[in-house]
Amino acid sequence: MSGFNGIPSGPNATDMKDPMETQVTKKRMWAALVVAVALFGGVLGQAATAQAAFEFERVGVSLTGSDGQFTRQAGAHPDFTFSFEVPSDPSPVIGGEPAPAGPLEAPHSVTLDLPPGFVGDPTGIATCDPIDLASPGTGQAVCPAASQVGTAYVFTTEEHTAGVYNIAHGPDVPARFGFNVLGVVNIIDARVRPGDYGITSGSLAVSQAQTIRSVDVTFWGVPADPRHDAERKEGGGPPRSTDAPRVPFLSAPTSCSSTPASFTARGDSWENLGVFDTRVLTSDLEGTPLAFEGCERLAFAPTLEVAPLSTFADGPTGLSVDLEVPQADDPDGFATAHLRKVVMTLPEGMSVSASSAAGLGACSLAQIDLDSTDAPTCPASSKIGTVRLDTPVLDEQLQGEVILAKQNDNPFNSLLAIYIAIKGPGFYVKLPGKVEPDPNTGQLTVTFDDNPQLPFERLQLDLKSGPRAPLTNPGRCGTYAAKTVLTPWSGTAPVELSTPITVDQGCNTGGFSPGLSAGTVDPTGGAFSPFLLRITRNDGEPNLSKIQATLPPGLLAKLKGVPLCADVQAATGACPVGSQVGQVTVGAGSGPSPLYVPEAGKAPTAAYLAGPYKGAPYSMVVKVPAQAGPFDLGTVTVRNALNIDPTTAQVTAVSDPLPQILQGIPIAYRDVRVEVNRPDFTINPTSCKAMAVTSTLTSATGQSANPSSRFQATDCGELDFGPSLKLAFKGKMNRTGNPAVSAVLKAAPGEANIAKTTVILPKSQFIDNAHISNPCTRVQFNANVCPASSILGQATAHSPLIDQPLSGPVYFRSNGGERELPDLVADLNGQIHVTLVGFIDSVKGGVRTRFQNVPDAPVSKFTLKLKGGSKGLVENSENLCSFTPKAKVQMTGQNGKPNNFLAKIATSCGKKQSKK
To answer: What is the reported pLDDT for 871?
Structure first.
């Protein structure tokens, strides 16, 4: 008869060819046969009469133990038979003549889905060369007896018997089997299907050149068992023995359930291609349910080694996981139970490293495509590790990758998940794993559940190492433990393993010594310039928890015209753009390459000016969108109270506690940078004395450090200094009278600020002791409960840095005995609170008031008005209308320049009063 695609296969097909030509012909014929099998799916047939759709008349499976009886033992090595029959026309007529009975429709392809866990191991079985299976010129296979794994019975017009052989194959399928009936090769490919990763065998079909009515294919559980010797033959030839070792080939599932396992058969015909008859088989040919039992007899003794790839404390690390599951290979015993579930809990302190997110990608559900066995299309940047798998059912070691899943676009809709994607011959196994970080500690638990019911001997997984490694070690040296629970499909007790993990390098001695650097970009005295502050922390030291920084005197901000972020907005960082005064950069993670936020293309950070907070007149809201790599952890908002010293006007920023963990991801602060860069906002001092930005930094473990950064303005001597002061007495000008006193100071913009001011009144003036008997004590002053009798007058200060002037009462305040007389204190309130203290004494017979510690802040106008009359502080010793009183004024600028002059004191004397 003719072979496939018209290629001759009879004994005389090559009689006229020389040996070399014969060999070439064989190779060409085999190539054509393989192409044809790939195109048409296998065994061929021809129908006599067509019907509406193909259907099976009979289809079934059977499992037989070594005793020849049906077996339901889980993990056993039974013989397996699959058979089908198609309806036939008992009395066909072709060309008006009676013809042999044939199928109503010719089978085109038949496939069978084995239940999950039903697997074959062809690696211990010899293989047959595809050319020997085709065996051109013989009409039957000439494969070695050791390669036979079963028998096929094909009924056309009569029954034909053929051996089923283990066929050498390429990388496109994990296993291939075949048989030769009357010179027509039938190929059965074993493929791994998506979803449950069970085995689908097919196509088992028939050629249109043959009339096929039924097929029975049996695979032997132990092919070299002597009990198969009688069937170890080809066609009508004699039985053949084999000296191949007795190794198991088929293994029943290792899962026991009251629900029967199911085999699914599908078939279509040449007449109705693609219209399948599908049968789900849950019992054997005798009607016995295919529910496996005896799982308690199966072995399951896995071992596990887990080790960090770096042992530096608080350093980035990869992780090596080596899991072994010894596989039983006794042909008279049972297979090892397959691994169903892995739950691994890493030690507390070993957590996700924020450093790993830089440049990291993630794989979406569409890219991993879990519902197929095709190669994933995940970006290379999402691959965070490698996998190697040794399985007894394949000769070669399988290679794969660990892939980071996309946040919330994964099977668990979770922040963290990973995939293991392993490439096999013609398929990919893709396993999703859920990664659950403890929200309070960051401790990681990784779970792979419902793993494929496929055997493996060893799985080696390595998460990448280096500065961008996905994990970080605990912060202190010691021996920790990774705890793992391994559950078999057999339903027997899980195996719990504890693996020690040692961290013994870069051990933290408990120190906390963060660094601080700060200053303005342009330190020119009195100039506006952006201000920068940077805090750094060393690896291995406790994490940063709280920041308090005090600016040097005179380093101020122009609050005028800046809208404030409201409290409701400040709570979430949703402040208006108009209130923004700068931005921040945060470097987080372990190792030499921390992750810096914001990354290019991500949401920007911002620092906003807000109103009163925790007793401070102003606050700064720092907003950091926690976006890095493929992750979005939300927005971190930290509010900082901006306290202003009432005496020096120095600003001290006190942060709220910094968040230590976000959604289970620890934030290891390594580098915190604040840039206040609003135009014309931050202004330098007008003093060029050496100063410093000081700080108190607190760690998460309660330690504190006080790093400082030297600060000094420049070119202060270039600033002019020439404020004016006008003094006036009003009211009682006569001797023993108590005039009201008025002082108005004005300063030109751009000049150095006042550091000291001394005013010495003429000798005609002295302090009226009758009015100083009830000064305000410091305790009363601090509690804002000064008696009314201690109020001497009012003061108002105008500054270009604020929207509204500061004003408030002027008190006579006791000084605790430091000076003979109480102090003159202007208590100025408004957008900020400033107290201006004047020391009162007598020098050379004149009353002297010295303001020795004037804040280095620009003041355009300052007005001081003291009461007169019965509440006046100053008393005349002579008639002021009889002469022109003058005061000696001594001023010193913050840049050291003096401004001394005699100031005429205006009086309220008229012509009559001056005559008197």
So the answer is: 86
Which two tokens mark 674? 């604040």
Select from 2.40.50.100, 2.60.40.10, 2.60.120.10, 2.60.40.690 the CATH code of 719-915.
Answer: 2.60.40.690
DSSP secondary structure of 374-410: SPP---GGGEEEEEEEE-TT-SSPEEEEEEEBBTTBS
Task: Please provide residue 227's backbone torsions phi and psi, each rounded to the nearest 5 degrees.
Answer: -65, -10
- Roughly how many angstroms between the first and final C-alpha of the chain, as a whole number? 154
d(CA 416, CA 367): 16
Tokens for 220, please give them. 């032997």
- List the chain domain ranges: 4-281, 303-503, 515-572+611-717, 719-915
Residue 840 DSSP code: E
Partners of residue 84 on adjacent β-strands: 59, 215
Q: Strand locations in 141-276, DSSP E? A: 148-155, 159-166, 175-181, 184-192, 199-202, 214-219, 250-251, 263-269
Task: Check residue 34 and give its pLDDT.
Answer: 34
Residues of the chain with pLDDT under 70: 1-52, 92-95, 99-101, 137, 203-210, 771-773, 911-916
- pLDDT, residue 818, reads 84
Q: Is 337 exposed, middle or buried (0-12, 13-18, 19+ CB in 10 A)?
A: buried
626 closest CA partner among 403, 357, 348, 359:
357
Rounded-to-10 torsion of CA 708, 712, 713, 719: 130
DSSP 8-state secondary structure symbol assigned to residue 514: -
Residue 355: per-residue pLDDT: 93
Residues 6+ apart with CB under 8 A from 296: 490, 492
Residue found under tokens 């007899």: 297
Q: What one-character-per-residue DSSP string does 10-71 give?
A: STTTTTTS-HHHHHHHHHHHHHHHHHHHHHH-S-B---SS--SS---SEEEEEEE-TTSSB-
In three-state secondary structure terms, 174 is coil
Hey, what are 183's tokens? 């010179």
Q: Which one of 2.60.40.2230, 3.40.309.10, 3.40.630.30, 2.40.128.110 gives the CATH number of domain 515-572+611-717?
A: 2.60.40.2230
| Amino acid (1-letter code) at residue 94 | I
Which tokens belong to 224? 């070299």
CB-based contact 340:325 (threshold 8 Å): no
822 contacts: CB under 8 Å, gap ≥ 6: 772, 775, 812, 813, 814, 815, 840
Say whether 515-572+611-717 and 303-503 share the same fold.
yes
Buried b (16+ CB within 10 A) or exposed e, 355-369: bbbbebbbbbeebbb
What pLDDT, on the 0 to 100 scale, is given for residue 28? 33
Locate all alpha helices (DSSP H) within 386-472, ordered by sequence. none
Bridge pairing between strands 682-683 and 669-676? unpaired
Find, among 533, 481, 526, the residue nearest to 503 by Cα: 481
Cα gap 433→818, rounded to integer Å:
74
> For residue 102, what are its two tokens?
């044939």
Show the tokens assigned to 314: 């608080």
Please give the sequence-ordered ranges of beta strands (E in DSSP) within 359-488, or none if there are none: 383-390, 398-404, 417-424, 427-437, 444-448, 458-463, 471-472, 478-488
Measure the CA–CA gap between 542 and 537, rounded to whole angstroms.
Answer: 9
How far is Cα 34 from Cα 363, in angstroms, rounded to an integer?
37
Question: 66: exposed, middle or buried (C-beta count within 10 Å: 0-12, 13-18, 19+)?
Answer: middle
**Architecture category of domain 303-503 in CATH:** Sandwich (2.60)
Sign of CA dihedral 62, 65, 69, 75: negative
Query: Cα 670 to chain center, whole Å?
Result: 18
Encoded tokens for 17: 């060819």
